[in-house]
Amino acid sequence: RDDPTESEAMKRMETNYDEGKVPDYRLPDPLTFADGTAVVTAAGWKRRRPEVLRLFETQVYGRMPGPYADTRFEVTAEDGNALGGRARRREVTVHFGAGGAAINILIYLPVGRETPAPCFLTLNFHGNHAIHADPGISLSTQWMRGDEAHGVVDNRATEAARGIVSSRWAVERILERGYALASIYYGDLDPDYDDGFRNGVHPLFETPGDAARGGEEWGAISAWAWGMHRGLDYLETDREIDAGRVVAMGHSRLGKTALWAGATDERFALVISNASGCGGAALSRRRFGETVAIINASFPHWFCDNYSKYNDKENTCPVDQHMLIALAAPRPVYVASAEGDRWADPNGEFLSALRAEPVYKLFGLKFGTTKQPQVNQPVHGRIGYHVRAGKHDVTDYDWNQYLDFADKHLK
Ligand code: GCU
Predict the structure, then answer these.
(1) pLDDT tens track for 35-64
(2) Cα three-residue angle 203-53-235, rounded to 5 degrees
């Protein structure tokens, strides 16, 4: 929703941006079992991990189902000479049942590779056609937020929407570096407004006329993450993709989603959170910038209903977001912040990554820093982190880091 209500506006005005006013807090320990004993080995983490996962499922994002039984992949378009010969473009529709529910995956493959390509799998905010001006990309017909300035009329994309967010997608650079890029419009999975989960993929798993939803049922972030899992199901069938080297990447609410998708599906080889902030990488207990109460008021459909129990009571939540990052372990994970993006609490994102490190250490893996690095000074350990100059966005700088980090860990 674009216009906050009056009470949300009030909440936002109370937002704390003063490091001196961050309350004292104690984080729950990822390395303590529910019965109070300590996790001291990597094998111990394998047993602790499902406990942590279950807490995020029941208290934060809601439980997502497995694959839909009646799923069918259809390659709908193919162009071996896309982007002036620099790419092969493929479009795939994943059909769920016969009722018309489907997601559309846009894939760019690098040309001239003899072996299957590693791949970044992402969701996007404005439709596949918005990530690049390439006129060959199918225009989304889904409901979409935005105005005429963004090429959207009556909540549908028009030709004018092609490439409107291309600055966030370093398509050519990704391809030159030998990676494929796959992207899905998040509105194919669940249009981003609070409609009681009547549209999108939720109804595939719910009987019409079901009683009120329980506190653990999946919200929109889980539905979007579920869609990333289904995208990966397809990639596993594509012989030009190396499905063992697929990176889950997302920005902002879709960064929260990427972290959750990577936590719930260990097939992802690497996970990237770009400016995911509250409910993503940032520690909720710091109450710096956006808070749990604010996010639940503004976006009541994102999390499971139980999450509202922690509005202004972050200390009573059995998890904090460092434990979400830890669910990526021992796989490489990257957390990126922007200096001007105080709403997402850059320092809280860094501290969260740092507090995930003890889990990595059980595997003999390191972050490589104990202090938040200076602006534009990336750290690429098994955990990666940078705080970029500038605002809430995805830039070429961010992509350059992700490509270097992926090269380091996946090549
Ligand atoms: C809002 C929201 C954030 C979210 C962001 C985005 O600012 O408060 O939590 O990350 O939108 O997705 O762009």
Answers:
(1) 999 999 999 999 999 999 999 999 999 999
(2) 60
